[in-house]
Amino acid sequence: MASETAAGTSAKQVVTRFAPSPTGFLHIGGARTALFNWLFARHHGGKALLRIEDTDKKRSTQEAIDKILEGLDWLGLDYDEPPVFQSDRAERHADVAQKLLEADHAYKCFATPEELEQMRAEQRANKQPMRYDRRWRDRDEAEAPAGAPYTVRLKVPTEGATTIKDAVQGDVTVQNAEIDDYILLRADGTPTYMLAVVVDDHDMGVTHIIRGDDHLNNAFRQLPIIRAMEEIEGNWPDPVYAHVPLIHGSDGAKMSKRHGAIGVEAYRDEEGVLPEALFNYLLRLGWGHGDREEITREEAIQLFDLDGVGKSAARFDIKKLQNLNAHYIREADDQRLAELVAQEIGKPGETSVLAEAMPVLKPRAKTVHELAEGAAFLFKTRPLELTEKAAGLLDDEARGRLAGLSERLSAENSWTIEALEATTKSYAEELELGLGKLAQPLRAALTGTTTSPGIFDVLVLLGKEESLARIDAQASPAGTGKTD
């Protein structure tokens, strides 16, 4: 008869956990898992907890722990209790293994590494599943040599099936005979991941385990521990499982670095993404609410639930992230953006002029980097270094026209967009030129490039004195630039 876990929420307080291994950066899939757990807890008025699974001491680093915590903080994911470090709890894990052993839900396995390798070789030769053959499950310990090392293995039920009512995947059933008697304690007495996770989830009061669907098989291996401890102690309820499909690249292939599988901090530092944009984008990777794309943090807490999570893999698309980031840049506070740009360009004392420039810089930018590039003209020193294209615009004829324009602009008493535009257009008409023929050389003289915010915005932002100085530095003293 199939045994089951109940999906959904109950009267008991919802408790979720995010449990990264600090063997590398917080990648995009891990960040989404963290987000879904956090949102589910917040939506149901529950608790969101954090556990650092640092039992792999050879590969776990303090640098990785710091990066994970920094990335979560940057995304605005706060936790209701201090992080639990799994490595601090080895004694508790071993205690549970001992209880399972005493209650005959586990046993000592004295198989040597050589014997196990021979077993696997025979299974490979016979094209059998690679699975421990339970050779010590029912043997007397006295048959082992005195003082021989042993592992502790779980006695997994061999009959029947287990069905999980997964909150995302639906009903999933596995025959119990397909699960081997895996190790709980290694020969050196250290707990395995499979044991540690179950004990920690129980002790932290976790009610809902939301994680990638690559862990779905683990659920069927972890449930026997939970149910054995329920029989021994009581108060070991099955959690609700929700296994979320993984993230693929835009081409449908497994996510890799070429698709953007980089640390969360790299989206901030290298891609120039705002945290609210990545938050929103991760939310929409595999979860939806109608056709809505732009969802605020407050709305996400209100709307998020597991019934909105899809069953198929989500596709990561960096262009969609950049487009969403452009939206949030346009919505962001000018002073905040000014501080970000000032930090990037090494001008921490220039936030006031940058804040003033943001209304004309924001509509053109998809990233903070593009904001910084757009603002670069404000801090250039004379003589401006011209790009090749900009230099190509400043032939003798153009330089003559700039000289004539400088005369007219220097007489301008109202240094506003409207007044400057009127004066420039009037001069262009006098020369019988389209405005572009005058504006492009003017842009080159003012910014050193061929792209910038609107040319009259540039004049206003630079101010009269600096604008005229830049124009005069490129203008020809020869005259008006009129042609015969």
TrEMBL record:
<dbReference type="InterPro" id="IPR045462">
    <property type="entry name" value="aa-tRNA-synth_I_cd-bd"/>
</dbReference>
<dbReference type="GO" id="GO:0000049">
    <property type="term" value="F:tRNA binding"/>
</dbReference>
<dbReference type="InterPro" id="IPR049940">
    <property type="entry name" value="GluQ/Sye"/>
</dbReference>
<dbReference type="Pfam" id="PF00749">
    <property type="entry name" value="tRNA-synt_1c"/>
</dbReference>
<dbReference type="GO" id="GO:0008270">
    <property type="term" value="F:zinc ion binding"/>
</dbReference>
<dbReference type="GO" id="GO:0005829">
    <property type="term" value="C:cytosol"/>
</dbReference>
<protein>
    <recommendedName>
        <fullName>Glutamate--tRNA ligase</fullName>
        <ecNumber>6.1.1.17</ecNumber>
    </recommendedName>
</protein>
<comment type="similarity">
    <text>Belongs to the class-I aminoacyl-tRNA synthetase family. Glutamate--tRNA ligase type 1 subfamily.</text>
</comment>
<comment type="subunit">
    <text>Monomer.</text>
</comment>
<keyword id="KW-0067">ATP-binding</keyword>
<dbReference type="InterPro" id="IPR001412">
    <property type="entry name" value="aa-tRNA-synth_I_CS"/>
</dbReference>
<dbReference type="GO" id="GO:0005524">
    <property type="term" value="F:ATP binding"/>
</dbReference>
<keyword id="KW-0547">Nucleotide-binding</keyword>
<keyword id="KW-0030">Aminoacyl-tRNA synthetase</keyword>
<keyword id="KW-0436">Ligase</keyword>
<feature type="binding site">
    <location>
        <position position="257"/>
    </location>
    <ligand>
        <name>ATP</name>
    </ligand>
</feature>
<dbReference type="GO" id="GO:0006424">
    <property type="term" value="P:glutamyl-tRNA aminoacylation"/>
</dbReference>
<dbReference type="InterPro" id="IPR033910">
    <property type="entry name" value="GluRS_core"/>
</dbReference>
<dbReference type="InterPro" id="IPR020058">
    <property type="entry name" value="Glu/Gln-tRNA-synth_Ib_cat-dom"/>
</dbReference>
<feature type="domain" description="Glutamyl/glutaminyl-tRNA synthetase class Ib catalytic">
    <location>
        <begin position="13"/>
        <end position="322"/>
    </location>
</feature>
<keyword id="KW-0648">Protein biosynthesis</keyword>
<dbReference type="InterPro" id="IPR020751">
    <property type="entry name" value="aa-tRNA-synth_I_codon-bd_sub2"/>
</dbReference>
<comment type="function">
    <text>Catalyzes the attachment of glutamate to tRNA(Glu) in a two-step reaction: glutamate is first activated by ATP to form Glu-AMP and then transferred to the acceptor end of tRNA(Glu).</text>
</comment>
<dbReference type="InterPro" id="IPR014729">
    <property type="entry name" value="Rossmann-like_a/b/a_fold"/>
</dbReference>
<dbReference type="InterPro" id="IPR004527">
    <property type="entry name" value="Glu-tRNA-ligase_bac/mito"/>
</dbReference>
<dbReference type="InterPro" id="IPR008925">
    <property type="entry name" value="aa_tRNA-synth_I_cd-bd_sf"/>
</dbReference>
<dbReference type="Pfam" id="PF19269">
    <property type="entry name" value="Anticodon_2"/>
</dbReference>
<dbReference type="GO" id="GO:0004818">
    <property type="term" value="F:glutamate-tRNA ligase activity"/>
</dbReference>
<keyword id="KW-0963">Cytoplasm</keyword>
<feature type="short sequence motif" description="'HIGH' region">
    <location>
        <begin position="20"/>
        <end position="30"/>
    </location>
</feature>
<dbReference type="InterPro" id="IPR000924">
    <property type="entry name" value="Glu/Gln-tRNA-synth"/>
</dbReference>
<feature type="short sequence motif" description="'KMSKS' region">
    <location>
        <begin position="254"/>
        <end position="258"/>
    </location>
</feature>
<feature type="domain" description="Aminoacyl-tRNA synthetase class I anticodon-binding">
    <location>
        <begin position="337"/>
        <end position="473"/>
    </location>
</feature>
